[in-house]
Design brief:
Chain lengths: 300, 242
């Protein structure tokens, strides 16, 4: 196991940030920690990177105990925090050299690991890092987190606030890093980013809701979901809320994802009900479950 | 300006030195419409939005917002719109009640109006228990819903939302969109930016900015047809990747 988390709890004053968290990340895995702001993702990252001590439970990273062997962990992990934390007054090149030096290595020694990523910002290597665009900062931060060839890479919300194109590119980059043998734990609030992860943990309010492969998590969903569409979205939501047999109603793009309380749901009956509410062009079709459906069902 | 258009933009341009952040964009937004304003990071969305809310003067071009000119009457624009962003919305070290009173005062509501609005808002959002708590103690989702309602205190003609749901949990994100639907249903125009492409599908019309220009503007349905793809995410990827 690359990361082992056993019964970790952490509170800040009267706020319980993590409540009895346990899961494991296998060596070479690309593992996603999926949950909204305030779920406890950053607190867990800080415990695993030895920046914070848990109130209860234990954790090991790359075989080292998070308390007893904290210095070993620091030598063998890369950590990219959610907030940009490089030296804004140093240039791109200087930041990279700085991080290589404090880890007792050189940029040349591990250049092949960062080449793909660094090459994109190399034209700006004389620019101070504070003057880079968001996307470039992200690439530099990742290069710095990788320059000592870590066994485990921690990425805390690397794609938050990033547009879909750059997000897609970033995940493709992670997939290539994984192929180089690095274990990656990455957190994100975007539920659609789970597809490229080997396994994911869903987290909300300091609790793990489920840990499995994305496909298995979807398979565990207990209900049949229907895509419902009508001419007026807002009126459709109001009408479905008034329907006594509804189990859940969630807008999903141009449709509403609907589940029914009953086992023998009859779409025709619901169409009649909606027509009675004045809606037109109604369609009800079975649809595939997504991770987001599962998350919402578990978080209810 | 037609009665039904609450935003009218023609060749709006903003330059910083020799860099053109917003390059001659033109569009109109109708009353009661939910208008999605999308684009990659750095495409010029924030710069364009700042001109529309009257806090940045355009380099050239014309824009009328809520019936007022962005050059001549930026202060009238500010009085007639609401604005909420993920980064700044409410004062963390004031209570729920104090925030409502403060923003009500800023928007020039009377004490009586503020009290009435406050009771209505607290009731609607179910905040009775936390009305005297500091905003910093509220979960993010509650804060965002409260911030949205506060931005609507003065019944603005248009509300501008800058990534209002970033990082918010999926259930709250949908409750937030129900509030948006309701607002638009009541006749307020909603101008919204987001990085969630499923939210782009909730908009009546969507514009996509690429390198300072609007490269596409239509209903999500027509955009998908035009680019022959299944989702707004694919439309976005096709356009922004060029």
């Amino acid at each position: 196991m690359s990361i082992k988390i056993e019964h970790i709890s952490k509170s800040f004053k009267d706020v319980s940030a993590l409540k009895d968290i346990s899961f494991e990340v296998k060596e070479g895995e690309l593992f996603g920690l999926i949950g909204p702001d305030g779920a406890g993702k950053t607190t867990l990252f800080r415990i695993l990177t030895t920046l914070l001590i848990a109130d209860e439970g234990m954790a090991t990273v790359a075989g080292y105990d998070a308390i007893k062997n904290y210095k070993d962990i620091r030598n063998h992990v890369g950590y990219m925090p959610g907030r940009f934390s490089l030296y804004q007054d140093l240039t791109v090149e200087e930041n990279l050299e700085f991080f290589a030096t404090i880890f007792g290595t050189t940029v040349e020694e591990n250049y092949d690991l960062i080449k793909d990523i660094y090459i994109q910002i190399e034209p700006f290597k004389k620019r101070r890092s504070g003057k880079l665009s968001g996307g470039m900062k992200q690439k530099l931060a990742l290069s710095c987190a990788l320059i000592h060839k870590p066994k485990v890479l921690f990425l805390d919300e690397p794609t938050t606030g990033v547009d879909p194109v750059s997000r897609k590119e970033f995940w493709e980059m992670l997939k290539r890093l994984q192929q180089k043998g690095i274990t990656i734990l990455v957190s994100t609030p975007y539920m659609d980013e789970t597809a490229l992860c080997d396994r994911i943990a869903l987290i909300q309010d300091g609790k793990i809701l489920e840990v499995d492969t994305p496909q298995e998590i979807i398979n565990h969903y207990p209900k049949k979901i229907y895509n419902i569409k009508a001419d007026k979205m807002y009126e459709l939501i109001l009408a479905l809320n008034a329907y006594e047999h509804n189990h859940s109603i969630y807008p999903f793009g141009e449709y509403v994802h609907y589940t029914d309380k009953r086992g023998d749901f009859n779409p025709t009956e619901l169409i009649q009900f909606l027509e009675g509410k004045g809606l037109k062009n109604i369609s009800i079709q079975p649809t595939e479950t997504t991770i987001e459906d599962t998350f919402m069902e578990l978080a209810r | 300006m037609k009665q039904t258009n609450v935003i009218k933009v023609e060749n709006l341009t903003k330059m910083f030195g020799d860099f053109t952040a917003v390059n001659a964009v033109s569009f109109e937004v109708k009353k009661g419409e939910i208008f999605g304003f999308l684009g990659a990071n750095g495409a010029g969305k924030t710069t364009a939005m700042k001109m529309l809310i009257g806090i940045s003067t355009p380099t050239s071009g014309d824009a009328q917002v809520a019936g007022f000119d962005v050059y001549k009457n930026p202060d009238d624009i500010k009085k007639n719109i609401g604005y909420m962003s993920q980064k700044f919305a409410l004062y963390d070290d004031l209570t729920v009640k104090e925030n409502i009173t403060f923003f009500g005062g800023i928007y020039g509501l009377s004490r009586h109006q503020i009290k009435e609005k406050r009771c209505q808002l607290v009731e609607e959002l179910g905040l009775q228990e936390v009305v005297n708590e500091l905003v910093s103690s509220l979960p993010l989702g509650w804060k965002q819903k409260l911030a949205f309602s506060v931005a609507l205190l003065h019944d603005p003609k248009i509300i501008f939302l800058d990534e209002p749901t970033g990082g918010v949990d999926p259930i709250t994100r949908r409750q937030f969109w129900e509030m948006i639907y309701k607002t638009a249903h009541n006749g307020t125009t909603v101008f919204v930016t987001t990085h969630y492409m499923d939210e782009a599908e909730y908009c009546d019309r969507v514009s996509i900015m690429v390198d300072g220009k609007i490269e596409a503007l239509d209903s999500p349905k027509k955009l998908k047809e035009h680019f022959n793809v299944a989702s707004m995410n694919d439309v976005f990827l096709k356009l922004a990747r060029g």
